[in-house]
Amino acid sequence: MDLKIAGKSAIVCASSRGLGKACAKALVTEGVNVWITARTEEALVETHNELAAIGGGKVHSVVGDVTTEAGRDALLSACPNPDILVNNAGGPPAGNFRDWGQKEWFDAVNANMFSAIDMIKRTLDGMCERKFGRIINITSVAVKFSQAELGLSNGARAGLTGFIAGIAREPAQHNVTINNMLPGFIDTDRMRSIVKTKADGANAELDSFSETFFQKIPAKRPGDPDEFGATCAFICSEQAAYMTAQNILIDGGMYPGTF
């Protein structure tokens, strides 16, 4: 399927690895010119070279921390008029809510709520004027299926979800959509860290715990990052223009609810 986004420009935040990298890879494959970002140049070099070798769209690298104003300034200075924005930031650490103070909560809200809101504020009106825009926020299945050890993520990402619900509908008349992608257990460093935390909490050996854990997911496996990236690319397509204000689960059937 031709997604009809070749030649478009995209910012993919926190994209040197994990889900951000998977989304950038899928967009480059579709011919989108992509600006990737990470906190250090060392983190970007390998990913930049890997994506550039795909062909398709051009790849640009920006060093900066998207959770800081300076990082967002650098990113938007390099690509001031993106057609596509994929908001992403590393998730806060797992743990026990009794151990978290104001700093931990403020850091989580800044990284996983405010930074995305600020990027949207800076890009949305331009997209509306140009009559094309796709904004995707990578959140988590925890928004719908909270887990105690991910309390910082539950709270911050649910806050972003509520904010998006309030602003996502009006831009649709301008061919600008805003959607959230809710990953479950996708095979990334972040996922492996969370599974290890769960295993440690159960005083279990990691390999045997992991095997049992993934058998509880209907798909009987963790997700492949490329599956996630392909879904992102479709949501950015011309064909997805009638889909907005949605929370899209990519979780192998883990979430048990009807809605």
Characterization of the model:
It is a single chain. This protein is an alpha/beta fold. Helices cover 44% and strands 14% of the residues. The chain has helices at 18-29, 41-52, 69-78, 102-130, 151-167, 189-201, 206-215, 225-235, and strands at residues 9-12, 33-38, 59-63, 84-87, 133-138, 176-183, 247-250. The protein has a seven-stranded parallel β-sheet, sandwiched between helices.
Tally of individual helices: 8
The total domain count is: 1
Task: Describe the largest sheet.
Answer: 7 strands, parallel
Per CATH, the class reads Alpha Beta
Chain-averaged pLDDT: 96
Question: Strands of the largest sheet, in order across it?
Answer: 3-2-1-4-5-6-7
CATH superfamily: NAD(P)-binding Rossmann-like Domain
Task: Specify the CATH architecture.
Answer: 3-Layer(aba) Sandwich
* DSSP, total strands: 7
Structural class: alpha/beta
Return the string of H and E elements: EHEHEHEHEHEHHHE
Low-confidence stretches: none
Give the overall shape.
globular
Q: What gyration radius follows from the Cα positions, in whole Å?
A: 18 Å
Helix content: 40-55%
CATH topology descriptor: Rossmann fold
Whole-Å distance between the termini?
A: 29 Å
